[in-house]
Specification:
alpha+beta, 41% helix, three-stranded antiparallel beta sheet
């Protein structure tokens, strides 16, 4: 698992917001228009190691849509998004997280994106705004 300095992990939320707010963010894949970012409430997922509770994985995420109209409808599906992302977060924590090792935010984003697309296939990506594992 790659290790990143804490300063890079702390700068991640700012980078994600800057990319989402940039004019080029809505032009991925040649499509035009502005992107839409919809925040999801913070998730707290238990971390188990050897069958014992060893910490909590805290995840702050946002859904990235290419089209603002599609992003506007996301609020109506918020409970289903939270359920899908929470379920994927539990599985990710079980397989890939320890309270003492760095978290692979890229893998977490891909995992949560796949889960969010089961609710709405128009989700371009799940942005990880903040992630931490605490004992």
């Amino acid at each position: 698992m790659p290790r990143f300095p804490r300063s890079i992990l702390r700068a991640g939320p700012l980078l994600a917001l800057a990319l989402a707010a940039s004019p080029a963010a809505g032009n991925e894949g040649g499509g035009g228009g502005a992107a839409s970012v919809v925040s999801i409430a913070e998730l707290r997922v238990p971390i188990f190691d050897g069958g014992r509770f060893s910490g909590t994985l805290r995840i702050q995420t946002a859904l990235d849509y290419a089209d603002p109209a599609q992003g506007a409808s996301a609020a109506a599906h918020a409970p289903m998004f939270r359920d899908a992302v929470l379920s994927a977060g539990l599985e990710f924590a079980r397989l890939h997280v320890s309270a003492f090792t760095p978290i692979d935010a890229a893998l977490l984003s891909r995992t949560l994106t796949d889960a969010a697309r089961t609710v709405d296939p128009h989700v371009r990506k799940v942005l990880i705004l903040d992630v931490s594992a605490r004992q």
